[in-house]
Amino acid sequence: MGLMVADARKDCQDTIMRAIIIGAGRGRRLMPTTENAPKCFAEIRGKRILDWTVEALQAGGATEICFIGGYRIEAVQRAYPQFTFRNNADWESNNILVSLMYAEDLMDRPFLTAYSDILFTRDVVAGLVASPADIALGIDTDWREHYRPRTQHPPHDAEKVLTGNGKVKRVYRTIPYEEATGEFIGVAKFSARGGELLREHYRRRKREFWNQPYREAAQFQNAYLIHLFQDMIEQGVAFGHADTHGKYREIDTQEDLDLAQKGWAL
User: Fold this and answer.
1) CB-count burial class (<10 Å; 0-12, 13-18, 19+) for 46
2) Cα-Cα-Cα-Cα dihedral sign, residues 252, 258, 261, 264
3) Which residues pair with 139 in a beta bridge?
4) What Rg, from alpha-carbon coordinates, does the chain have?
5) Class assignment of domain 2-263?
6) CA gap 99, 126 in Å, rounded
7) How far apart are alpha carbons 112 and 108 in whole angstroms?
8) Which residue from 103, 177, 163 is spatially nearest to 131, judged by alpha carbons?
9) Among 77, 74, 102, 33, which residue's Cα sits nearest to residue 254?
10) Measured between alpha carbons, how far is 88 from 57 in angstroms, rounded to an integer?
């Protein structure tokens, strides 16, 4: 009986899905909105970006939310006391990859990650959670249409993806516009094994490249998440994906904010 209870408890723990929202940066291109507030507090159709994010994550199964903050973290702590927090106090000198790993201690169970400046739906989250892959990326396959009106954020800056046979083959900004399957939307799922693989690769590359160039980054601490993802793919780690066809928006500039006010709908 004791073993049965223990097994049941383990099954329950395995199904708990944490979500880690990465929101340490200031978002200078969204000034003056971010002059005195974190980027995720910008409002779209009457709700903060962060509220849209939480709703999508929770509807997709997330039961615990960790927010990695830096700039104006105290505002998020006041407004969302139910969150677990990690403070990236060095947010001005590092980037999103290092920022994510401030929550490394929470990666022992299945979890989702999400950028804090994006709009996405519960459907893509549900698709990621249902993916059998240990690591799966959310991808917008309608990304070209998304970029047509964005004069301040050109397509060459998109975190473009190539897929085939149900797997991500490449995730790279330099993938030619005509060839890209879609754009990584900043939402990903990791099983417990996937989290272990992420931590292993991160620690290895951190030892090797700290204060040195890493991929396209001038220093490892300035690397993006996709830099490590591509590195892992090249090392043979399989990445699955879950697609959305246009139900995604990145809010990087004031133009993006204005476009979302007019066009965002679930």
Assistant:
1) exposed
2) negative
3) 184, 243
4) 18
5) alpha beta
6) 25
7) 12
8) 163
9) 33
10) 22
Domain ranges of the chain: 2-263
Q: Give the separation between CA 176 and CA 118, rounded to whole angstroms.
A: 23
The residue written with tokens 């940066």 in the block is 25
Distances (CA, A) of 11 to 18, 176, 247: 15, 43, 32
Place of tokens 């990445």: 239
Q: Tokens 């998020």 appear where?
A: 76
- Give dist(CA 260, CA 53) in Å, integer: 14
One digit per residue, the tens of pLDDT, for the chain of length 266 reads 343 333 333 333 456 589 999 999 987 778 777 788 899 999 999 999 999 999 999 998 898 999 999 999 999 999 999 999 999 999 999 999 999 999 999 999 999 999 999 999 999 999 999 999 999 999 999 999 989 999 888 888 899 999 999 999 999 999 999 999 999 999 999 999 999 999 999 999 999 999 999 999 999 999 999 999 999 999 999 999 999 999 999 999 999 999 999 888 76
Owner of token pair 């920022």 = 99
Which pTM does this prediction carry?
Answer: 0.92
